[in-house]
Write a structure and sequence with these properties.
The protein is of the alpha/beta class. The protein has 16 helices and 11 strands. Strands 2-3-4-6-5 form a 5-stranded parallel sheet, with helices on both faces. Helix 14 links the parallel strand 8 and strand 9. Helix 4 crosses helix 11 and helix 7 packs parallel to helix 8. The chain is globular, with a radius of gyration of 21 Å.
């Protein structure tokens, strides 16, 4: 196996094209084996295998700095940076966290468990490099779903002002945790349909140079484009179209379900862990479905996590009462407050770890205005590896 011999990124550079393809297959098989037994973020990592290989083939980490957004798509990166044993051997599965972690490796620069962060963090690294007179490449990796987050939008708005090397790899699998929501996704769709040639281009409007890779799971195509932008003296977006869940048919078909998964049977795709009864989330969802029939003023707000918060049935049965705002908790809270002021009876549901992004809005937009809204905060306790 090639993966067993990869102890650092320079080992990747010694492989030829055929060997890189074999390496990708081995990495994907290791991910399938580990995640089916251990659980974790599934679809995003299966889709990022070739991109991770290409990044380490072209750039010189850790001198060149790769910053992973959320970092739940960083498992392949970990496999190529000295941590492969945590994906190959069951007794070592818990040796690494589910996110990038500087305590694990010099190839990780931040501990990241929240979305939409990588562009802003990379901007800071790039500005620090420029102030010191250094020349290394700074690369931010961000998924299309994360682009809806406020910090990502702020970072992109600022980035073009750097006028120096900053490479943003947009991993576009046409999915957030669930489906994408927001106006910019119409433009991403147009860019995919036109092979990156659509006249309207969100990234060019913001001042970026732009490259498009139609098959983001083609390692040679990725290497070619990354070589083009390496050592760029201007901010550039490399927009790559990948397949979420690539290599595992159930995950390719059921992308939302397999964004993150508990341990499951590889043959059937069925979860093998019994939760032991009905969850609080299911009770809440059932109550909301009952109220939707009786209450014309009910509005249910969610920020990109309908599956995890048991809202899939509600979404399908009552689409006129369901509002998914994307990964935008700040907007969700303000939107909820205004719905209440407008005479609706809003119920907004969030993960405990995600509502942190909206502390100011909770205080200023909701509480200060005494808006009569219900907030349901789930998963507020201790969780395993990378469950949120």
């Amino acid at each position: 196996m090639y993966i067993e011999k990869i102890n650092q990124p320079t080992d990747v550079k010694n492989l030829n094209s055929e060997q890189l393809h074999i390496l990708a297959d081995e990495m994907r098989q290791a991910l399938l084996q580990k995640l089916s037994k251990h659980g974790g973020h599934f679809g995003p990592n299966l889709g990022m295998v070739e991109a991770a290989i290409a990044l380490h083939y072209v750039f010189n980490s850790p001198t060149d700095k790769i910053v992973y957004d959320v970092s739940h798509q960083s498992y392949p990166h970990k496999m190529l940076t000295g941590r492969k044993d945590a994906f190959l051997y069951e007794d070592k599965y818990d040796d690494v966290s589910g996110y990038s972690n500087p305590d694990e490796s010099d190839h990780d620069f931040f501990t990241i468990g929240h979305t939409s962060t990588s562009v802003s963090l990379a901007c800071g690294l790039a500005k620090g490099r420029d102030l010191k007179g250094d020349k290394e490449n700074i690369i931010a990796v961000i998924g299309d779903g994360s682009l809806s987050g406020g910090e990502a939008l702020e970072g992109l708005d600022f980035a073009s002002e750097l006028n120096s090397n900053l490479i943003i790899v947009v991993n576009d699998n046409d999915m957030s945790i669930a489906e994408n929501h927001g106006g910019l996704y119409g433009n991403l769709s147009a860019l995919r349909a036109s092979n990156g040639k659509a006249e309207d281009n969100y990234f060019k409007t913001l001042g970026f140079d732009y490259r498009y890779v139609a098959d983001g799971n083609d390692v040679e195509a990725l290497i070619a484009v990354l070589n083009e932008v390496k050592d760029s003296v201007r901010p550039v977006v490399v927009h790559v179209h990948t397949l979420k869940g690539k290599g595992y048919a159930p995950a390719e078909e059921h992308k939302e379900q397999f964004h993150w998964s508990l341990p499951f049977d590889l043959k059937t795709g069925q979860v093998t862990v019994n939760g032991g009864g009905k969850s609080y989330g299911e009770y809440v969802a059932d109550y909301l479905e009952e109220q939707a029939v009786r209450n014309d003023k009910l509005a249910v707000i969610n920020a990109a996590t309908p599956g995890a918060l048991m809202l899939r049935n509600f979404r399908e049965k009552h689409p006129e009462k369901y509002f998914d705002v994307g990964i935008a908790e700040e907007h969700a809270v303000a939107f909820t407050s205004a719905l209440a002021k407008g005479g609706m009876q809003p119920v907004a549901l969030f993960f405990g770890g995600f509502i942190q992004r909206a502390y100011d809005q909770l205080s200023q937009d909701l509480c200060l205005n005494n808006s009569p809204a219900v907030l349901v905060i789930e998963n507020c306790g201790i969780t395993g590896m990378d469950a949120t």
